[in-house]
Every structure is written in structure tokens, then in C-alpha cells.
Amino acid sequence: MSNTETLGPFPPSALSPASSIDANSDTEFDKLIEHQTRKSELIKKRDALARKRLQLKEETNRLNAILSKHKQHKLQQETKKKLEFFLHQNDHESIKLSAPDQAANFVLDNLDILPSFDYNLRRGLSGKFYPNMRVDDIKTCSEFLNGARTHLLSFTVAGDGLPSLKIEMKVCDEIVIDLTVKNYDQISSNLQRISQSYQKGLLLDYIAGRKLDLIMSSYNSLAYIQNERVSVFYAIARRYIAYVTHPPSALKWQDDPLTCFLCLPFIQLTVESNERQYNVKLHWSLILAKPSIGKIDSKVRITVLNEQHEPLEGANDLFLRLLSEYGPEKAFHLILNNLFNI
């Protein structure tokens, strides 16, 4: 029997260890190649997907930019349409408002509370509100200053017994932007002698603050009381002409009392009684008592001095009590009548 025959039914390959190892190696190598091929395909697919993702992202960004641009353009178009609509509406309203309005014209012409530029009318009305003074020499003109229309106005305010005020002012948008009294330097000394407080208030408050209303009201108030003072002084001087020692007769106050008594702060009488001589003075000061409204008040008092310049006690207290009831002229007369029987 041969060796082949003694091995029985097993195939030769099963009986060879070397051939079995070779077969397993081939199988593993094939699997490795298959895995490597699959890995390579997956890597290529991944890279392709990554490129596709990047392309899609770029496309998305591009489309978003286009969308944003379209939205902005649409918004601009809508804004433009709204603007055109509002402009059209505004033109329509402007045309409507610019049309003559009889009711509005009536209000502006008759019920307007703003200062009128009809200065002749204002001049006539000023006499009703300020009866103790007058407004003369009104001159007006207009100019453009810094692109705004400016009104230039000059006029003279005058009152009996007072130096006149030559006023110049500039008005823009109903606001006084400049105000001067051109002749202030020439009249300041007289104003100071008439009323020092008024002269100071006029310069430092009213002119500096461009307060035309207070210039007018205070001047009117000063003119009223100044006229009263001059009238009383003149009446006393005429009644007691034989006793008047101030102002002296050399001033010829009988001919021109306004000029003589313009800056006179007192009037003096010299009276003899019981062989003694007395100087009786009626002092009258004008004071800017209420600067906020331009009100001038009087401060009136009396002094009675003997030859030794000693005051007669109680004379002024009695005069002040009589003053509140009878006024300065009659109170002064009652004092003289009771003290000296004149």
C-alpha cells in the first residue's frame, strides 16, 4: 500500500500547514485592501461634502447679502414714497394755510397783543397810558443783520419839567437787542439833581437791561411827581413871595418857574416872629421806590430853624400828619399859619 492510500479521505491541502497559512494571509490582505479602498472613498466623499458645504455656505452668505440689499432698497423705496406723500400733504396744507383767512386777519388786525409796527398809532395811544409825557421825532427803518430783519427805531420822550430822553433801539423778532439814550451824558447831571435814585436806576437797570417799558413808565411817573413838586413850590413862592429867600429873586422864578424849580430840592422862607428869625424849609425828594414797576414816590418833610440853627421840635411830625390829610401845599400853609400867623 502506498502512502497516499494510507492517509484516507483527507485532501492534501488540509494536510499541509504551509498552504493553510498562505490562504489566510491572502484573505486578510484582500480585506485590508478592501478597507483601504473604502477608507479612501470615504475620505474623498468627506472632502467632497466639505467642499459642497463651503460652497453652500458661501452661496447662503451671497443670498443673504442680496436679500439684505433688496430689503434695504425696498425700505428706501417705501421711505421715499412716504416722504413724497408727506411733502405732497405739506404742500397742500401750506397752500391751504397761505390762503387768505378773514377770521385770522381780523384777529391779527384787531386782537393781536404783540407790539404793532404802526408807530403813529402807538404814539397816539401812548398819550392815554402816559399822560404826563409825549413821544416825538419818531424815525424808523429796517435792515438785515446776520440774516434777520432788524427794525431800527429812534424817538424822543419829553415831559414838562424834565430833560428829554433821546432813545435809539434795535428790535429783532419782537426782542429789543440794543437800546441807548443818546443824550444821557448831557442830561445825567440834571437827572441826578432831580432824583439821584432814578438817575442811577435808569442807567444801571433800565438802559443796561434794555427795559423800554420801565423807561417809559418811570419817566411818566417822574414827570407826574415833578410837575406836582414844581406846582407846589411855585404856588408857595407866589403866596409867600415876601418871605421867599430860596430860590432868590435873581433867578426870576416868576417868569420861568419850570426852569427855576427844575432841580430845586427845597424852597425856603425866612420869617420873623417875636423879634426872632426863623428859616422854614420845605424839602421834597423824588425817589425810585419800586424799580420793578418804575414807580416814583415823594419824600416830603419840613424843618424850622431859629437863628442858632436849632430845630423847632415837633414841627415835622405835625406837618406829616397834616400832609396825609391835606397834601403838601395846604399842610405847609397850616404850619405857617399856626406858628407865625401868616
Automatic annotation (TrEMBL):
Residues 1-22 are annotated as: Disordered. It comes from Australozyma saopauloensis. This is Kinetochore protein SPC25.
